[in-house]
Amino acid sequence: MSPFDSDYKIGVLGGGQLGRMMIQSAIDFNFNVHVLDPDANAPCKTIATSFTHGSLTDFDTVYAFGKDKDVVTIEIENVNTDALKALEREGVSVFPQPELIELIQNKTLQKKFYLENAIPTASFIETANKSEVAQHKDFLPFVNKLATGGYDGRGVQVIRTEQDFAKAFDAPGFVEKLIPFEKEIAVIAARNQNGEVKCYPTVEMVFHPEHNLVEYLFSPAVISIEIEEKAQAIAQNLIEKLGLVGLLAIEMFLTKEGEILVNEIAPRTHNSGHQTIEGNETSQFEQHLRAILNLPLGSTKIKTPAAMINLLGEDGFEGFAKYEGMNQVLGHNGVHVHLYGKKITKPFRKMGHATVTATEAEGLREKVNFVKQHLKIKA
Known about the structure:
Layout: E1 9-13, H1 17-26, E2 32-37, E3 50-53, H2 59-66, E4 71-74, H3 81-89, E5 93-94, H4 98-105, H5 107-116, E6 124-127, H6 130-133, E7 142-146, E8 156-159, E9 173-177, E10 181-191, E11 197-199, E12 203-207, E13 214-219, H7 225-242, E14 246-255, E15 260-266, H8 276-279, H9 284-292, E16 306-312, E17 319-320, E18 322-324, H10 326-330, E19 335-339, E20 344-345, E21 350-357, H11 361-374, E22 376-378
Parallel strand pairs: 1-2, 1-4, 2-3, 4-5
Antiparallel strand pairs: 6-9, 7-8, 7-9, 10-11, 10-12, 10-14, 12-13, 13-16, 14-15, 16-21, 17-20, 18-22, 19-21
């Protein structure tokens, strides 16, 4: 059956903003996208072909949702992979593959995979609990990471001195050498079933100083041709070694010595690719659909320099969202606002993003600062 047939069904586990933007891209191809999400008012609810309210981690719920779909994919990793494996055995295509979702669900397994496959990454030591973390004084400074359950900066704790051991996690994970990096960069790679691989040009990420999530990014990254080629080669090698079908977002450290180290990966569309909607010939959301449906991959070429700013709920406000400064921002050339359909704002909740485009990097920075200064999300 062709994905362009009217009765072809794409199932998505997760109905957040990533799924919402995937559906917005799918509409261009008249694809039928069905969504499962535990939030009864998830961002995808009003635009999906059908919406099912239910748990992503319950075997029966995921299995029942997926059994009549032609292909099932994800927009979040925290899903029941046993149900996905059962669906796969019964002929449902599942991409990314369930065993790879399992690997990426566990950051310790990620790190071991990098070592086994000669993927450059920061040195680490596996730990079972808080007391084991405290045994590695000679490894300081380091980052303590939970093996499972962390996302958007959660599950990560910087340990600089012995006094910081009280902040360590009392759960399985690892300690990773703290890297004095020059920049944090990212590459999104795509691979279809035919083995075709395409990578997006490297982007440069700037993280929020307190909340360890991307505040904004620039595309393309301001790096040398040599570093760009090295980052692209690492990304292609990684997705091919995994054999993953779909999209793989790869976050990396660029060290002061010019070395590139893989930090973490995500088997889906990602915050580091939002600017591709306006900035590249094929958006990451369209590319993900092309990959899981085994269609030819689209061009990843940059159309225009772009920056992406996450629109976060203001600190100290919780309730029905109110957007201040929207008129000023929309009146500024080259600013494109994407809201995620979330009615309730909370401090630092991702409520949307803005992409700004310009002909040169300095113009991007001016527009980023303009958006950050004027657009506020309160209650």
